[in-house]
Write a structure and sequence with these properties.
GO molecular function: adenylate cyclase activity
Organism: Agromyces luteolus
Family: Belongs to the adenylyl cyclase class-3 family.
Order of helices and strands: HHHHHHHHEHHEHHHHHEHEEHEEEHEHEE
CATH architecture of the largest domain: 2-Layer Sandwich
Radius of gyration: 28 Å
Protein name: Guanylate cyclase domain-containing protein
CATH topology of the largest domain: Alpha-Beta Plaits
CATH class of the largest domain: Alpha Beta
Helix content: 55-70%
Length: 454
């Protein structure tokens, strides 16, 4: 039976359901167990009726409303009720009930029959009661509008709206598919950009990056939840409700969101600072005010091809060893030539060097040492010019160009600008003319050179 892949604290739901259903005790259950559930529904034996306090606050949904929000038909809801998977209160369904419907459909799609799920609930092997916890409100129901209807109402192009779902990692929807409520939360931001005349290609690019970045965070969080909450609880022989740990989910979810937002704001401040500084540099240059450094510093971007993917494939211990080896290599390689690592950036490192010449030598040596250490090949970009230092980081056009050059370089290459080649007076290093290159995000072509040992 396939294991579910469910992110966030809901990873507990997928893991518990997909493992505990296969317990030996469940193998002895038969159709009689299923019938017993139906007979006992009226006596509320399933252990996940919504708490009385919540029922006092929520009037609930009708059968038709609940079915619409879960994206199922009414007969499917009736089937869940007959099996005891969902137990309404006076024929009204709570938000937790809707989430149970969503999960039941997901489990069924993952080849877990509803009858077996019902037997598992009956025997206490699994529970869906944790879906009443506030942390699980992120299981968004369907809205009442289709992608086509939202496009017509807001003026956001249909292909941009469908990209919302695609960017999350789900199949491309049809125009008549209903949007989910979490997808609807993205629409006002798209609306604003369209109204301000932003290019659809730029909007889509940002949307896809946001989707991919949050997917990676959610996947990492799901793995964290399984390793630190679910697996220890299963190993300790705890009950299904204890495995799901909704109380901890309610405490940790808002703190995790606050932490993520804090990190995001810090990243925004860094990116916005870079934009502001670069804008000032352009305006000052237009005004005829230029930097007159006799020997400007060099910025080096050292990227390792496929480093993130490799660390994921090799597992935690091997990834830690790989990171430790790389950290020692880049630290020593840069410091002995008057440089210093400034920050790690995904698959690489940004360095600051006092002089361009030693920076080129350091780049070439680190590329060679990386290969000797059995690590993936690196590609390097170097530029020299004025930079602004603020709070331990460097900003400006020099930094941005060096980054773009590293992106352009092929594995094993050290590419530099004409300014670096002209200032590079290191013995035993030659510069091969690459010619003009079109760099991503740079309006004018840059003349590049490939540095090599003679």
């Amino acid at each position: 039976m396939p294991r579910l892949s469910v992110c966030d604290p809901a990873g507990a739901a997928g893991f518990a359901a997909s493992t505990s259903i296969l317990r030996p005790s469940m193998a002895r259950a038969d159709a009689a167990g299923t019938r017993s559930i139906v007979e006992r529904v009226a006596r509320n034996p399933n252990g996940h009726r919504p708490p009385a306090s919540r029922l006092a606050r929520v009037s609930g949904f009708s059968r038709e409303e609940a079915a619409e929000r879960a994206g199922v038909d009414v007969p499917y809801v009736d089937r869940l009720v007959r099996l005891g998977i969902v137990v309404p209160e006076r024929d009204r369904f709570s938000a937790g009930d809707v989430r149970r419907m969503l999960m039941a459909r997901s489990l069924e799609d993952a080849a877990i029959p509803l009858e077996r799920l019902a037997v598992a609930i009956e025997h206490g092997a699994v529970s869906l009661g944790f879906f009443d916890a506030a942390a699980y409100e992120r299981f968004a129901p369907l809205s009442g509008e289709s992608f086509q209807q939202v496009s017509e109402r807001t003026g956001v192009p249909l292909d941009l709206l469908t990209t919302i779902r695609e960017s999350i990692g789900s199949p491309l929807p049809s125009p008549d598919d209903l949007m989910r409520e979490d997808e609807m939360a993205v629409v006002p931001f798209l609306e604003l950009q369209i109204a301000e005349g932003f290019r659809p290609t730029a909007i889509e690019r940002l949307l896809r990056v946001q989707g991919e970045s949050t997917r990676r965070m959610a996947d990492a969080e799901g793995a964290w939840w399984n390793s630190e909450v679910v697996e220890p609880a299963i190993a300790a022989g705890r009950s299904a409700d204890e495995i799901a740990n909704p109380e901890f989910a309610d405490r940790s979810a808002p703190l995790a969101e606050r932490a993520m937002l804090g990190l995001y704001h810090a990243q925004q401040a860094r990116a916005w600072t870079s934009n502001i500084i670069e804008g000032f540099e352009v305006l000052l240059s237009r005004a005829g005010i230029h930097s007159h450094l006799e020997r400007p510093p060099a910025i080096c971007f050292f990227d390792i091809t496929g480093y993130t993917r490799l660390t994921q494939e090799r597992g935690d211990e091997a990834a830690a060893d790989l990171a430790s080896t790389l950290a020692r290599l880049v630290q020593r390689g840069s410091v002995r030539h008057g440089g210093k690592p400034i920050k790690w950036l995904g698959d690489g490192v940004m360095f600051h060097f006092r002089d361009p010449g030693p920076a080129v030598r350091a780049g070439l040596e680190m590329v060679d040492e990386l290969t000797t250490a059995g690590l993936p090949p690196a590609h390097v970009g170097l530029h020299t010019g004025p930079v602004l230092f603020q709070q331990g980081d460097y900003f400006g056009q020099t930094v941005n160009l060096a980054s773009r050059i590293a992106d352009y370089a092929r594995p094993g290459e050290v590419l530099v600008t004409e300014a670096v080649a002209a200032a590079g007076d290191e013995e035993g290093i030659v510069f091969r003319d690459v010619g003009p290159a079109e760099l991503k995000g740079v309006s004018e072509s840059m003349h590049l050179f490939r540095a090599e040992f003679a």
